[in-house]
Structure formats: structure tokens, C-alpha cells
Amino acid sequence: MLFDRVAVIGVGLIGGSLALAARRAGLIGEVVGVGRGASNLADARALGMVDRTTSDLGEIGPVDLVVLAVPVRTTGEIARSLAASIEPGTVVTDVGSVKQWVVEECTEALPASCPFVGAHPIAGSERTGAAAACADLFEDSVCVVTPVDATPPPARDAIIELWRGVGARVHEMTPSDHDRALAWTSHLGHVLSYALAHALAGAGDVLPLAGPSLREITRMAGGSTPMWRDIFLSNDRAVLATIDEFSSSLGDLRAAIEGGDAAAVDALLDHALATRRRIVEDS
């Protein structure tokens, strides 16, 4: 067993799924679920992902591991609240989609005796809450772990073993490299989905004609508003850079259509198709 006693702060889709999967794999023992919603905490207990729940960080008690499964921009605040109560040797990790900001905030907030190891499981759906959790969520997924120079090797190794133990393929990256990559592979897609759904609200009575393609491309706009607000604002430089580059690409396609340039349209679509095939083959 990797960790005898674990606190999961934010028992939702990701935190709850990690608890379920790690318990099933025999990687963790007792689990304390922490959150603010009484109904969600009741779901977590009923589904067997936690042994007890609390809304008070001070009532967690001694633990070997703390998992921060909360909106990105609250991780530093929670780490500061934990700093006075967790015991030396407690490992703290997270599951957020932004790493540079989180690693800096949490490393500064926590005592040196409580190492922070950033992690990001690239898995999930637009569903939220404990009721959406699934023990198989991380099977054959990718989890990025972002240790820094000061990360103790035993803490790094334990977090890697935890994610491998629940079925993920672990990639190690620096926090900044992670954030640039995820701005392209995840954050920009959500930006576009939200922007399209927002624009559709002013497009007139067209939604009765929505088909599977529109439902799919706007699926990501069904995600958690606090979570994605925090991701966009915490990874703002990388997200803005991808928006700018996408805008340039969109401008190329617009110009080809406006100019009636069939050859240019063909070239752009063929290039996009080739990239799409690579995405499917590599995933």
C-alpha cells in the first residue's frame, strides 16, 4: 500500500474517480473526503469512495497524502490553510490542468517538510460531482507529473506509482512545458467550444436544426464554469498565444473562402485532415 490514509479535497469527477480507482487497486487505505456541498459528500460516502467526510480542513487529521482536486486558483489558498495542520512528511499533490501557477503557489505555501508534487490526469468529461466518478476513468489515459528540482525523489516516485497503479501512462514534464502543451491540446479547444456556444445564442432560431456535429463541438462548453475560468486565467499567456495563432489560421481559411480559391481551401482542409489522422492514431 502506498498511502495508509488519504485526504481528497474536492470529491468530484477526478478526485472521486482517483479515490475509487486507488482503493480498488489496493494503493490507499482510509480516505477522508473534504468539500462544501453536503449532498455531494453524501454521494461520496454512499458510493464508497470515502470513509468519512468533513467540510473543515482542520478535521482531516493525520494523513500521508493530500489530493487537491479543486478549481486551479483555489489550490494556493487551500495549501496555505493546510500548512499549519498537516504533519511533516505528508505529500501534497493536485490534479489541475495548469501546473506552473499551481506548483509555485503550493510550494511557497507548504512547509518544506510537506513536499508538493504537481500532477494532471488528462481524463474526464463535462459531468461533475461525486456521482460522475468512475473507477475506470484513468485506464489507458495520460497523466503528466511535474516535479521540480526541489521535489524529493521518494515523493515524486510515490505519485508516479499512484497514477500508474490506476492505469495511467505517466509523462514527466516541467510545469511550463506542460502549460504550453495543454494550451494547445485542451485549453484552446474549450475556448473555441465556449465561444461557439456563446455566439450561437445570437444566431437566431437555428438550434432546432442542430445535429451531432454541433452537439459534439459544443460538448466542452458543458464543463464546470469555475474550473475553466480558473484554467483560462491561470494559464493566460499560453492560452492567449494559442488564440492568436488559431486566429491567424482561421484568417487564412476565411481569405481562401472569400477569394473563391478552391485550391487554397483544398490545401487547408487536406492539411487539417492529415493532422486529425495523427491525433486519432496517437491517442
Structure description:
It is a single chain. The chain has 283 residues and is of the alpha/beta class. It has 2 domains: 3-173, NAD(P)-binding Rossmann-like Domain (Rossmann fold), CATH 3.40.50; 177-282, 6-phosphogluconate dehydrogenase C-terminal like domain (6-phosphogluconate dehydrogenase C-terminal fold). The chain has helices at 13-24, 38-46, 75-83, 100-109, 153-165, 175-200, 212-217, 225-234, 236-258, 262-282; strands spanning 3-9, 28-34, 52-54, 65-68, 91-94, 116-122, 142-146, 169-172. The protein has an 8-stranded mixed sheet, sandwiched between helices. The longest helix has 26 residues, at 175-200.
- What is the CATH superfamily of the largest domain? NAD(P)-binding Rossmann-like Domain
Determine the N-to-C terminus distance. 31 Å
| SSE class | alpha/beta
* Mean pLDDT metric: 95
The CATH C-level name of the largest domain is Alpha Beta
H/E element sequence: EHEHEEHEHEEHEHHHHH
Q: Largest beta sheet: what is the strand line-up? A: 3-2-1-4-5-6-7-8
How is the CATH topology of the largest domain named? Rossmann fold
